[in-house]
């Protein structure tokens, strides 16, 4: 593949584009299933479209983390290292339990980890509640994750494209 005359960034852009499409399709399937079971957007079509964008943006940011890890760690180590992060992020977020129901000492972790504002924004967009602050927080988290991963991804792909 590297012998073809393609731009070095094509592999990275293709990977992130594929991840974007995958997350969007998965989101559509989940929403469709939810609607069959009775889920409805109560905030209008614009809110529903923005709701759909949040997992896509979050998914691309997480894909950047996974891509960065894959470029620098052996596959087995990468899976072992990222799995606890994913599990803890999903466990200690506001998706299952409101922040005020967690013990006092863990509330700051739950409140300020990347997944909680995304869940809160999606909840606000679907059934009502605060949207602006959680949405801005989600976008800032995603931008920060992408900014941290940008340079290592570029260097890693450059090394991969020049090594044989």
Description:
The protein has 164 residues and is an all-alpha fold. It has one domain (9-162). It has six helices and no strands. α1 packs across α2 and α2 (45-72) packs antiparallel against α5. The longest helix is centred in the C-terminal third of the chain and has 31 residues, at 132-162. The protein is globular and about 50 Å long. The model has no long low-confidence stretch (mean pLDDT 89).
Total strands: the figure is 0
> How much helical structure, as a percent, in the residues?
over 70%
Our Rg estimate from Cα atoms comes to: 18 Å
- The tally of domains stands at 1
Class by alpha and beta content: mainly alpha
Count helical runs. Answer: 6
Low-confidence stretches: none
The separation of the N and C termini measures: 11 Å
Strand portion: under 5%
Mass-distribution shape:
globular
Average per-residue pLDDT, rounded, comes to 89
- Major sheet summary line: none
SSE series: HHHHHH
Please sum up the structure shown.
The chain has 164 residues and is mainly alpha-helical. It is built from six helices and no strands.
What keyword list fits this structure?
6 helices
Topology:
Layout lengths: L8 H28 L8 H28 L2 H17 L15 H6 L2 H13 L4 H31 L2
